[in-house]
Amino acid sequence: MEQTCFFLPHDGVKLSELAQYLGAELADPTNANIVIHSVAPVSRAKEGDVCYVISKKSKDELSSCRASAVICSAGLQSIVPSHIAVLVSKNAHAAFAMAGGFLYPTALQPLPTLSQSAGISDRAAIDPTAKLEKNVAVEPFAVIGADAEIGEGTRIGAGAVIGPGVKIGRSCSIAAGSSVLCALVGNGVIIHNGARIGQDGFGYAPGQRGMIKIVQIGRVIIQDHVEIGANTTIDRGTMDDTVIGEGTKIDNQVQIGHNVRIGRHCAIVSQVGIAGSTVLGDGVQVGGQAGLNGHITIGAGVQIAAKSGVVADIPAGERYGGLPARPINDFLREVATVMTRAAGAKKPGEKND
Fold first, then answer.
1. Could you tell me which residue ranges the UDP-3-O-[3-hydroxymyristoyl] glucosamine N-acyltransferase non-repeat region domain spans (predicted)?
2. Which CATH code, of 2.160.10.10, 3.40.960.10, 1.10.3370.10, 2.120.10.90, is assigned to 125-330?
3. What is the pLDDT of residues 212-262, one digit of tens each?
4. SS3 assignment, position 17
5. Could you tell me if residue 277 is left (phi over 0), alpha (psi between -120 and 50 degrees) or otherwise beta?
6. By the 8 A CB rule, do 156 and 179 touch?
């Protein structure tokens, strides 16, 4: 069967131009005119591809690599074969990410559902009081409520719902099937397919006749350049706001409760759950499937290991893991002790010496 390519290679950029864009140094200026079309892993890179290495462990793979160029640090230049051009970067991983974005700009945000979907579809439902700036694209079956405001260059995907009074900034991408309610969204925000923003928070008060619903009258504030993954949910605040800080990246299937406040440039991986009124400082990183208790504070720069259960405050700059979460060295030491004892335990029926 013929392979379908969803993202076509770039027409080509000279290595010298790519190096300038990345802020990297071309190790051998005679390679300046080599043309790069695509990115690829070391294991299957071919002519026209650029790849990257961040460890000497890649030495064996590089020996058979056919890439046109490799991005690496100065300390790893020696393991790159002489037939491959080298771009020297202080942060090869970040430089490679930039190269991918340069060569495949359309892959940086959700693709349009239709090949010809510029402008406003006559099959979209837009309230007459909504305000759309120029160059806004609205795909079929999207719904935009009363008094909503959509900034220039933003795309609203097929079947997306923008609630009454919602304000969305410029150059945003709101993908198909998502809903944005009771929210103020900044510029350059990406919300992927099926995300749910601004629905009720989970709040009930036990009463004589059962659980009494607590009204949720707050908002969701999403600052500039945030990215929110597919099927992630962010509840609106109870009386205050739920806030997602500038530049934060949230993976797919994350649950963020009401009144949570997340700082700038955080990274939250898939299936994390953050209970209501928890505060995360700037630059916090949370591994997949971790759970954070409500009403706690996670200091700036904290790293939380995957599958951890965080039940109390964590000071800034710490690394925690485990259930309950504790300093990562303590957690790893306990795991090593348990494994050592388990390995040394006698099997059932085995005689003592």
1. 33-99
2. 2.160.10.10
3. 999 999 999 999 999 999 999 999 999 999 999 999 999 999 999 999 999
4. helix
5. left
6. no
Q: Considering the chain, tell me which residue range(s) the CATH 3.40.1390.10 domain(s) occupy.
A: 13-108
Contact status, residue 298 vs residue 292, Cβ threshold 8 Å: yes
Q: Bridge partners of 75?
A: none
Q: Please say whether the beta carbons of 328 and 304 come within 8 A.
A: no
Cβ-based neighbours of 310, under 8 Å, separated by 6 or more: 290, 291, 292, 293, 296, 298, 304, 320, 324, 325
Q: For residue 13, list its beta bridge partners.
A: 36
Global pTM?
A: 0.91
Q: Are 169 and 154 in contact (CB under 8 A)?
A: yes
Identify whether 258 is a catalytic site residue.
yes
**Residues carrying CATH 2.160.10.10, the chain:** 125-330
* Cα–Cα distance, 284 to 45 (Å, whole number): 34
| Site of tokens 């205050």 | 240
Pick the CATH number of 13-108 from 2.40.260.10, 3.40.50.920, 3.40.1390.10, 2.30.110.10: 3.40.1390.10
70-110 pLDDT, tens digit per residue, is 999 999 999 999 999 999 999 999 999 999 999 999 999 99
What residues form DSSP beta bridges with 51?
70
Distance of alpha carbon 92 from alpha carbon 293, whole angstroms? 36
Q: 125: which 2 tokens?
A: 């439902």
Residues 26, 4: Cα–Cα separation, whole Å:
34
